[in-house]
Amino acid sequence: MPRVRTLVQLRSAVARFRGRGETVAFVPTMGALHEGHLSLVRLAHRHADRVVVSIFVNPLQFGPGEDYTRYPRPAARDRALLAREGVDLLWEPAVTDVYPPGDLTRVHVAGLSDVLEGASRPGHYTGVCTVVTRLLNAVRPDEMWLGQKDAQQALILERMATDLLIPVRLRRGPTVREEDGLAMSSRNAYLSHAERQQAVALSQGLAAAWILMRGGERNAQRLAAAIRREWDGYPLVREDYIAVVDPHTLEPLKAVRHEALVAVAAHVGPARLIDNFPWRGR
To answer: Is 85 in the same domain as 132?
Structure first.
């Protein structure tokens, strides 16, 4: 699997794809890959001639006291997984490749970036939008694949690409889960055995809300209460937020009519985990 470090090497490799008339799909990651990332790679392969993956742990999206320095970086394992998936090019930039000396520019999507995850992690989405803008300008893909588990992030990046006239199609792959329902996340590696058993509360709480909605419940307060009741049985789970929001604006809903995003975040031991499900009326 070809690997490049510098921007010059990256653009030269992508130019060779373009010179052959090939389409390019891009999957940005921070490494510590799991089946969720690999599912996006497979979707990208199905929809484009060439797949480019980046691994870059972005310092700008970590706040003070967050886990930037201890974020897992199993580089050799990640490379082996991507090679097994037939990735056409892996880009592993240095921090100075993405943020050159004297860098001053930041990208912020107002409103959408300031609620839910944005309220809990101030500045996080400015870091995400800034790095993704740079990655997209470097790769210039036809499409970029994102995961539904990070639904707010996907929505913000879709808005950003539209507003900044970035010529890329953003596509979402479904959340990939462990056998017991826990959404796959690189931060699951932080969990002890006991914490891992408790972390399943996130998906079980969402499942309880889903069942109520299937039965006709539409009151957002009662849906949130059902999730909290489920979490009551898991003492290691500490709620950050439980939200029922419009999936396009992220504004809180009092009652679900046609569409909704039910999103949760909680601390389990040293890990902060998120999960969600989209709802469309039926």
So the answer is: yes
Within this chain, do residues 193 and 113 fall inside the same structural domain, yes or no?
Answer: no
CATH classification of the domain holding 251: 3.30.1300.10
**Residue 190 and residue 124 in one domain:** no
CB 27 within 8 A of CB 168: no
Report field, pTM of the whole predicted structure over 0.90: yes
**Which 3 state secondary structure label does DSSP give 93?**
coil
| Closest by CA position to 247, among listed 138, 142, 158 | 158
Instruction: Kindly report, residue by residue over 92-113, the tens digit of the pLDDT.
Output: 999 999 999 999 999 999 999 9
Residues 6+ apart with CB under 8 A from 268: 191, 195, 198, 199, 201, 236, 237, 238
**Residues designated catalytic:** 37
CA atoms of 63 and 124, how far apart (whole Å): 7
d(CA 202, CA 95): 34
pLDDT tens for 224-256 read 999 999 999 999 999 999 999 999 999 999 999
Separation between Cα atoms, residue 145 and residue 280, nearest integer Å: 22
